[in-house]
Amino acid sequence: MNVQMMSYDECIALIKRQWLARLGCADRNVPYVIPVQYSCSGDKLYVFTLPGKKLEIMRRNPHVCVQIDQLKSKHSWKSVVADTRFIDLSTEECREERDQAWSLLAKHTDWWEPGALKPTGKVADTHLHTQIFFALEIIDLSGRKTID
Prior knowledge:
Blueprint: E1 2-5, H1 8-17, E2 20-27, E3 30-37, E4 39-41, E5 44-49, H2 53-60, E6 63-73, E7 76-88, H3 95-105, H4 113-116, E8 132-147
Antiparallel strand pairs: 1-8, 2-3, 2-6, 4-5, 5-8, 6-7, 7-8
């Protein structure tokens, strides 16, 4: 197995094909990594969530990264890491972009579930009326892939 760097265009193509990312943020130098479902448009990834730990952390520290993978087998994979900037879309000034995020995410079946379900499988009963969308603006990215 050989590993090779991916071009910028290959990285963007992979991001646009996938829908699940690992989001990494940090609070006082303590990392926190969680899976998020996203949609991509231009240089931004759009995500839905309810109030909670990741949102609190990103509001304090907007420097966030995501890892997006395509796994075919142990020896056949692609992986992209993107440095991003968190943008809170909950303000009135962001209404148009928030509507765009909603529209893009709604193309996925059950797009809201990852952001609204608790580990029990039940919909979170607190803050149900508080739908929060955010964007992750891509600042830099890199990728690697295996080649046969």
